[in-house]
Structures are given as structure tokens and as C-alpha cells.
Write a structure and sequence with these properties.
Helix content is 33%, strand content 8%. The chain contains nine helices and five strands, in the order H-H-H-E-H-E-E-E-E-H-H-H-H-H.
């Protein structure tokens, strides 16, 4: 993480992908700030727009939770939404973030991945189309490591309300070619751009 933080100072002069993932040196301070918060485990402001009873002056650290069957988050006992354990039963879901509770839920699948890559695992480039080979990227499991999952989820947490996610338009991007195709103003809000930059 520290290498990526230091690299942001170079902006688009970086030789480590800053330009590909964040497009302009104007994004360097934002990217460095977000990565620094993650590295330091900075406190997260409560997302009071979704839970007005939370004290906006009481930030909390990110919390990692391994959900148990029957766990319910809603204080009112509303069971209409699936609980964290049920959400974790999605195919290949390693983790998800609940910004209201400043929590990252680690699903069982998370623990089947190694902590971080043992070697560099860069995807191949299709020089004819000037893009990364999607099959190589997908099959290599380039980002299937616990450390990268945590980076992805921490971006959701530290940029809550601005982050691209499944419910935003456009939705968050995971595919490498789609990540590098995002315009500058959206690139800083796409969690996978940080994963790929840090990787």
C-alpha cells in the first residue's frame, strides 16, 4: 500500500499505472488520501443519511465481521432483507460492505483465497486491439486475494455515497478493460481501479 501511496505523487508521470487507472494528476490527492485512510485504518464518519439516529460526530474504525446464520443488522428487527449470512451465500462472494454500520462482512469464500500473490501475475496484452486479454485476466484470478478484496471493500467504505457500486449509474466496473476505460471523474470512485493500481 505504501508504494502506491508514494507513487501517487508522480500523478500521470507514474510508471506504475496511475495514468491508466485515474487519468489525470488532478486525481492524485484524492487517490493518495483514500489509500492513506486505508493504510492507517482511519475512522469512518457515520453515514447518517441512511441512519439518522447515528451520532454524526462519532466516527468509528472499520469493523470486520464474519457473519453467523440468523444475524440481523436492522435494530427494528426487520427481516425482509436478507441478513449478512444469507447475503454471503451468493456465488463466489468473498466480502461485502455495509456503509451504515462501517462494517465489512467476510464471507466463507474469502477464507479460500491466499492473502496476497506470491509472484507478479500481470495479464497479457492483445496488441491488435490494444487492450488486456479478458480471458487471461479472468482466468488468472489476478485479484482473487484477501488483501485485494479488503482494498476493494475499504474503497466502498471510505468513499461511501460517492463510490460506484451495484446500485449506481453507471455501476461499478470489475473488468480490467472497463476499469481503464472509465473517465477521470468516475475512475476515482470505482473500487476495482484501486485494487488494480495497488496490485
Amino acid at each position: 500500500m505504501n508504494a502506491a501511496i508514494l507513487d501517487t505523487a508522480f500523478g500521470t508521470a507514474s510508471t506504475h499505472g496511475f495514468s491508466a487507472f485515474f487519468k489525470t494528476s488532478n486525481n492524485a490527492d484524492y487517490v493518495a488520501g483514500l489509500l492513506t485512510k486505508m493504510a492507517q485504518g482511519a475512522l469512518v464518519e457515520p453515514w447518517v443519511s441512511h441512519k439518522p439516529e447515528l451520532d454524526p460526530t462519532s466516527p468509528t474504525p472499520p469493523t470486520l465481521i464474519c457473519p453467523n446464520e440468523g444475524m440481523i443488522l436492522d435494530d427494528a428487527g426487520d427481516t425482509s432483507d436478507p441478513g449478512p449470512y444469507e447475503t454471503c451465500q451468493g456465488p463466489n462472494l468473498a466480502a461485502f460492505t455495509d456503509v451504515v454500520y462501517n462494517a465489512i462482512f467476510l464471507c466463507d469464500h474469502f477464507f479460500t483465497w491466499t492473502t496476497s500473490p506470491r509472484t507478479r501475475n500481470c495479464p497479457a496484452v492483445d496488441t491488435f486491439n490494444n487492450e488486456f486479454r479478458a480471458n487471461d485476466f479472468q482466468s488468472s484470478g489476478f485479484t482473487d486475494y484477501q488483501s485485494y478484496v479488503l482494498v476493494h471493500e475499504l474503497v466502498h467504505l471510505y468513499s461511501a455515497g460517492e463510490d460506484l457500486n451495484a446500485g449506481t449509474e453507471p455501476p461499478e466496473k470489475y473488468d480490467l478493460n472497463e476499469c481503464v476505460s472509465l473517465p477521470a471523474e468516475l475512475s476515482i470512485y470505482n473500487p476495482e481501479n484501486y485494487v488494480l493500481y495497488v496490485a
